[in-house]
């Protein structure tokens, strides 16, 4: 197996556990063109990649095989390397792809530590949840979950409760 076909297979199975590596989706084709430098944003744009992929694939199919991939590269190489002969341009494009494999740059990494600590930090709680804990982070129990009635004779939420005797 050539280095080019090996790279094709690695990109074909990327992100798809059911893939055998014989057929590549448009998403993976785009990823390969972007990561290998075939798509430079000037001579070859993302639109060009999509157009060539849809032109090469069989009608009704969502994937291309290795032979169709080579045909797609023949179309792209002429745009990518203007001034070179089609054969030289094709070899230059294949040179960009050979030996490459998909990278995981930009993917989201899971945090190893602090996940539970971050969620249980009561100092960051807001709203009604904030009322359930005291300053130390200890729960207030039933008093933090329910509004308990005060039978003092004063209207609820009255700020001057218990001050009647102190004024006379």
UniProtKB/TrEMBL annotation:
<dbReference type="GO" id="GO:0046785">
    <property type="term" value="P:microtubule polymerization"/>
</dbReference>
<dbReference type="InterPro" id="IPR011992">
    <property type="entry name" value="EF-hand-dom_pair"/>
</dbReference>
<dbReference type="Pfam" id="PF05517">
    <property type="entry name" value="p25-alpha"/>
</dbReference>
<dbReference type="GO" id="GO:0032273">
    <property type="term" value="P:positive regulation of protein polymerization"/>
</dbReference>
<protein>
    <submittedName>
        <fullName>Tubulin polymerization-promoting protein family member 2-like</fullName>
    </submittedName>
</protein>
<dbReference type="GO" id="GO:0005737">
    <property type="term" value="C:cytoplasm"/>
</dbReference>
<dbReference type="GO" id="GO:0015631">
    <property type="term" value="F:tubulin binding"/>
</dbReference>
<dbReference type="GO" id="GO:0001578">
    <property type="term" value="P:microtubule bundle formation"/>
</dbReference>
<comment type="similarity">
    <text>Belongs to the TPPP family.</text>
</comment>
<keyword id="KW-0963">Cytoplasm</keyword>
<dbReference type="InterPro" id="IPR008907">
    <property type="entry name" value="TPP/p25"/>
</dbReference>
<dbReference type="GO" id="GO:0005874">
    <property type="term" value="C:microtubule"/>
</dbReference>
